[in-house]
Amino acid sequence: MDSRNTSYARFVTEQPHVVIIGGGFAGLSAAKALKRAPVRITLIDKRNHHLFQPLLYQVATAGLAGVDIAQPIRRILRRQQNVTVLLEEVEAVDPEKHELALADGNRIAYDYAIIATGVSHFYFGHPEWERHAPGLKTLEDALEIRRRVLIAYERAEAETDPLRRAEWLTFAVIGGGPTGAETAGALAEIARRAMAGDFRHFDPGHARILLLEGADRVLLSYPEALSEKARQQLETLGVEVLLGARVKAIDERGLTIEGPAGTADERLEARTIIWAAGIAASALGASLGAPTDRAGRVEVDPSLAIPQCRETFVVGDLAHIEQDGDLVPGVAPAAIQQGQHAATNILRLMAGKESAPFRYKNRGSMATIGRKSAVAVVGKLELSGLFAWLAWLTIHIFFLIGFRNRFVVLFEWAWSYLTYQRSARLILEEAGEASPSES
Fold this sequence. Notes:
The chain is of the alpha/beta class. The chain has helices at about 5, 25-35, 55-60, 75, 140-160, 160-170, 180-195, 225-235, 330-350, 385-400, 405-420, and strands at about 15-20, 40-45, 50, 70, 85, 90-95, 100, 105-110, 110-115, 120, 170-175, 210-215, 240-245, 245-250, 255, 265-270, 270-275, 280, 300, 305, 310-315, 320, 320-325, 325, 365-370, 375-380, 380-385. It has 11 helices and 27 strands. α2 runs parallel beside α9 (about 330-350) and α5 packs antiparallel against α6. The longest helix has 20 residues, at about 140-160. The N and C termini lie far apart (about 55 Å). Residues about 1-10 and about 430-439 have low confidence and may be disordered.
């Protein structure tokens, strides 16, 4: 084997080498938790920035610019001398050899690994739907959705046929979880407020915003009473909530949903479709040789390590770990706690101790619906409306990384609240990229 490729882990010092794959909440938290540890850390990510995913929908709906919720990983870790950041893609991890393979052909040896590569979209066996219904996991996804939304209004302005104009002014969000509900609410506010008076040939307030959920209520992870309040808040904003709506087909002009037993399927014409339904784990998890669940998440032991190698940890959205009979949710606080816990267990192993089991401390969950509209669960307290919205604002500002990001986002939210305007309404057309089909 090429010694140049395998000696990377130990050619500087004899300190243990910790490899962290992924610069999201879990990966960054793990790196920071090892700041004063006698280890060398290599953090690897195929993107150079950390993304604050909970606010990604606001980039997609023109409320924030991409730079407002992203920060270069090198900048975040610039003062942590025991970290080296690599802009690379990891193709496979071999826990038995304590090695990982990079896309460029190189291999890196490690003593301990923390894998935090997250999840992506899942289209329930229909990958062809992605072309017509992009999901919302990356900054590129958000910018593409924003482009499609804004172009739809431009096409509606130029369209003379009422039926074709109605197609451009129909926006369908598939999936009634937090991302879907937040996106649908933001789209409704754009139509009713931000776009008001900007067009001459139609009223943006007539735009039709659809939220489709296959279950019998939105926000299934929330108590039923809050779920119902969220539905009511969405409908107050002008969102049409379609429950029990199971998608059967998606194309460039719209989608088809299954009709109730014994009835015909229903066709919905919508030029802009956004996917917020299924998720699938990063493909890197499959290379570990550990058991996985139906979504591809790696089933870890109570310490967050994979069963066959106690030095290789899987954390964040990629990890499947249950607590009190329920799956630990794929949310930022859980990812942060898991990253910190994996780092603590590495220190325990280095000291000759056994790894400690992970215990998720659930400090609550919340989802915003729109202006002064949100739902939140904090302990036994259930909130909705203005108080939940204020709590949501406070928590998200607190978790944003970097003072500039906090200041800019706070200013943008204040401006939007006072004026109903959205400042990031630029249409960016990449070279060679086609607009949504006009056929």
